[in-house]
Amino acid sequence: MSDVSSARSVNTAAEGAEDPDLALARGGDGGAFTRLVEPLRRELHAHCYRMLGSAHDADDALQDALLRAWRGLARFEGRGSLRSWLYTVATRTCLDSVEARGRRALPVDLGPSSDRAVVGDAPLVDVAWLGPYADAGLGDGPLAPDARYEQREAVELAFVAALHHLPGNQRAALLLFEVLGFSAAEIATMMDTSTTSVNSALARARRIVAEKVPSRTQQRTLREVGDTRVREIVAGFSTALERGDADAMVALLTEDVTWSMPPLASWYHGLEAVADFAMRVPLTGCGSWRHLPTSANGQPAVSCYLWNDDAGAYLAWSINVLTLRGERIAEITSFLGPDHFTPFGLPASLP
């Protein structure tokens, strides 16, 4: 059963007071509560990621939200669906986190690009960086009939990055309406505000997102390019890195390509700058690489492992998310750090 159909079956069951698991959960049965929420866990986690821009923060927020829901289950009277009530709890939990932590950023948000390779760039530890999202459990279609975005479109890097230019209330309203298909009146109840305020927040949010998100989504591009060709592009990128082949790398890129590497502040725009960085740093300056293909944010991605003499192995280094325009790579976002690998189910090292 798909996530969507599972969620709908849960909603239908939860609307009636006779639902046995709901009655048991209200009576303190933790197993019954787990059975109620498990079909919705993946989509709730994706919602928390969109709100917070970090898979680790989404883990914490979802755990907190489900704990709040468990403790407050007696307040759920069954007038609406269990799904909408859980989204209310999750959204309010995320809004508390947004208020405490602020928004997340990518290097392109912080300053101009560099014309030449910056060697020895130090990570910025005082910036809350946007992180990648392991999307293996997401479906392909919308979560609700009225939703504008597909599930995978709604975790694409450009969309999530654009969301983090919005205040928390606008971010929540846009996600609840456009991605999850709730009505403005339902959202007003969920966010404890008026329908007028929700509509105003939606109008402002749509303007900002429209300015920052390409009209052609990655999902549309990937469908047009086709799975076989996408795999070839990913393999070509990986092989160019492993062989230190600058010409092969450049042949894969658009003229206006960008390459960024959070948590490093420096980023590169245009074929000349990106080629200079690639040649001086990953292709010749880092050492020996190995790679595994993966998928992140609904996009093709490559997990990079760098040889470490002390460990005698290739250690997890970065998740490289590729944004395609046609059959070329228009953006490379390299999320540095082994902590990103665990949510993807990737090994910490390779022999």
UniProtKB/TrEMBL annotation:
Domain of life where this protein originates: Bacteria
RNA polymerase sigma-70 region domain mapped to chain residues: 36-103
Sequence ranges assigned to domain SnoaL-like in this UniProt record: 235-332
Domain RNA polymerase sigma factor 70 region 4 type: 158-207
Keywords: Sigma factor, Transcription, Transcription regulation
Family: Belongs to the sigma-70 factor family. ECF subfamily.
UniProt cross-references to PANTHER family, sorted A to Z: ECF RNA POLYMERASE SIGMA FACTOR SIGG, RNA POLYMERASE ECF-TYPE SIGMA FACTO
Oligomer and partners: Interacts transiently with the RNA polymerase catalytic core formed by RpoA, RpoB, RpoC and RpoZ (2 alpha, 1 beta, 1 beta' and 1 omega subunit) to form the RNA polymerase holoenzyme that can initiate transcription.
NCBIfam families in alphabetical order: PRK08241.1, sigma70-ECF, SigX5
Protein name: Sigma-70 family RNA polymerase sigma factor
Organism lineage: Bacteria, Bacillati, Actinomycetota, Actinomycetes, Streptosporangiales
